[in-house]
Design brief:
148 residues; single chain
Length: 148
Amino acid sequence: MHIITHLLVGIVFALILGLNLPFVVIFILASVLIDLDHITDMGLPKKRKLKSADLWNPKRYREYNYQSGQKSMHLFHTFEFLTLIFILGLYFQTIFVIAVSFSVHILTDAIGNIWNRNINKVGGEDWIKYWFIIYYLNKRTIYNKENF
């Protein structure tokens, strides 16, 4: 469901922005491929393992994603990384399109986190700290040891 949601949101925003065909394709691909950084959560020693089939199952993905803390750093979802690609986007139009797509993805994730964690009170309200590289540097790890 997560992939489908981001695919649909990517298509809608690419069309709203009136991008030309190559940029529409890049925008839509980037809106889904940003989640490649979630691969760091797969195979980690933890209570529940995320399986690739769970990415398509709305109930399993919600249980995995929102009812527990994030297991590891998702680099592409961090504000520092997003800032870097926006800076690079000042020089390369394609990278700017990717940066906008990543921003739309992160905004969609934030809406999901606000809804599931803050309104439904599932999984804790301190989820935003995981979106900063500095958080992991301060902990001296890319993994959230307290979530194992």
